[in-house]
C-alpha cells in the first residue's frame, strides 16, 4: 500500500496514456495520498483485439490504488463517488474526457490540468504532435486551472524545453511528462501554501491542436524536406506518415533532412544504401530510414528495398 503523509494534499488523478502514468507515478512516489484514479475503460487493441488496459489503469492496479473506469462521468454514482472522496486536488493529464463542473467543484483546493504545450498555444488533444508538425523550436508543460472551456483556464506555472532534432512524438511526450510532473508537484505545494496565483491566458493568441486523424498521414513529396521530416516525427506512433510505392502503402517512421539535391522528380528514390533511401522532395533530398510495408513489421528501409528487390522508383501520395 502507498505510504501516507499528513502534510501532503490528497489527490484524485484522471489520466490514461503513458504521459499520464509517468505523472501519476511521480505523485505516488512523492507520497501524495492518491484517493482514487480514473482512467478510460479497457479496450480491445492490436490484431487479436485483446482487451488491453491503459498504462494508468495498470499502475493503479499494481499499486492497490482505487481505480474507476466509467464510460461517463456525469452518472449519479460516479459524481457521488467523487464528491464523497473530496480530494484537495483533482489532477487531469491526458484523460480523454471533458470534466463536468460538478467534478471540478469537488476539489477542496483546486482542479488542475497538466497540458503539454506553452499555453495559450496548442489547446486541444494533440499539442505535442502539432508542435512537432509545425517545426517549433521549443515547447513545454502548463499547469492550469480547469474550466468549462477546453484548456482555457488561468495558468499557474509553465516549464519550457527545447525540441531537439532527435525528438519525435514518443520521445517528446516522455520528456514533457517528466517536466510536467515536476511542475505539477511544485505548483501543488505552492498553491497549498497560498504562494502561487494563476494568470489569465491571452485568449487572442490561442491556437489549437485537434485530435489526430488518419487523413494527416499522406506525405506530399512536393513539400519541403523539412516539412516532411516534421510530419513523420509528429505522427508516430499513430497514425504514422505514409506514402505509396507501386500501389502498396508504406508507413514511414524515421527520416533525415539532407543537404543534397538530386534534381529528380519529387518522390523519386534516387539512391538506396544501408542507411536508407535518398528521396527527392520539393527542396533538398530526404533520407527515409525506417519503414513498414502494409501487413508487415517495421524495418530498416534498406531491408525492405532488399526484400522488394528495389533499385529505384517513385513514392506517391494516395
How do you describe this structure in short?
The protein is of the alpha+beta class and 318 residues long.
Protein model, in words:
This protein is of the alpha+beta class and 318 residues long. It has two domains: 11-205, Formyl transferase, N-terminal domain (Rossmann fold); 214-314, Methionyl-tRNA Fmet Formyltransferase, Chain A, domain 2. It has helices at 18-29, 55-62, 76-85, 101-104, 127-133, 169-192, 225-234, 301-308, and strands at 11-15, 34-38, 43-45, 50-52, 67-68, 89-93, 110-115, 138-145, 155-162, 241-245, 248-257, 268-273, 276-279, 286-293, 298-300, 313-314. The strands form three sheets. A seven-stranded mixed beta sheet has the order 5-2-1-6-7-8-9. Strands 10, 11, 12, 13, 14, 15 and 16 form a seven-stranded antiparallel beta sheet that branches. It has a two-stranded antiparallel sheet with strand order 3-4. Strand 6 (89-93), helix 4 (101-104) and strand 7 form a beta-alpha-beta unit. Helix 1 (18-29) packs parallel to helix 2 and helix 1 (18-29) packs parallel to helix 6 (169-192). The protein is elongated and about 65 Å long. The termini are far apart. Residues 1-5 have low confidence and may be disordered.
Shape: elongated
What is the top-level CATH class of the largest domain? Alpha Beta
Give the domain tally.
2
The proportion of strand residues reads 25-35%
Question: How many β-strands, per DSSP?
Answer: 16
And the CATH topology of the largest domain? Rossmann fold
* Low-pLDDT residue spans: 1-5
Along the chain, the helix and strand elements come as EHEEEHEHEHEHEEHHEEEEEEHE
Task: Please report the distance between the alpha carbons of the first and last residues.
Answer: 53 Å
CATH architecture of the largest domain: 3-Layer(aba) Sandwich
User: What is the strand arrangement across the widest sheet?
Assistant: 5-2-1-6-7-8-9
Separate helix tally: 8
Q: Which structural class is indicated by helix and strand composition? A: alpha+beta
Mean pLDDT across all residues, rounded?
94
